[in-house]
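Recall the central idea of this unit: under ordinary conditions, the amino acid sequence of a chain determines the structure it adopts. In this exercise we apply that idea directly, starting from the sequence alone.
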Amino acid sequence: MRVTNIHKRKLPQSLIKVSPLLHTLGTGNDAIWPNENWPSIYFKEGLKKGSPGGHGIIKYTIADYDKAGNIIFNFTKPKGFEGIHQFKLEATSENETLITHDIQMHTTTIKSTWFWIVAIRWLHDALIEEAFDKMESQFSEVKIKPKYTLWVKFLRCLFKRKALKLKYV
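Accordingly, the structure predicted from this sequence is:
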């Protein structure tokens, strides 16, 4: 099954102010990833091209990374997820930056298709919106609180229990 999943948000800040946030991804002072509520993102060799990493059961390798604020990841797991996902930053004006997270992949097995449709898509959408909220909160005194649908709450509970049992952290 072909999967296209795109999230976009305009931040009322210049690209010069927003792009440093992307360079903290997977570090000890990560200003994007919502580590507080989701499995941490990591890169074995740091944020650089060729570095393997992931979060939870999702694994990938950094296919490209540039200082302008663009990162492309190639999926390596779960089995049946073939394609990329990426973060892109684009100045839409002097004082506005568009951040995009984009998945372009194919699920190649019945299991991976089902997994995407029933669970991963919902969790992914909630996680990315929360990451965008965290970025936006970097420029505001008001911190945006995550809001999960009932289905996402159920899946998070289910995966948390299963993750603890399977020793995924």
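Residues 164-169 have pLDDT under 50 and may be disordered.
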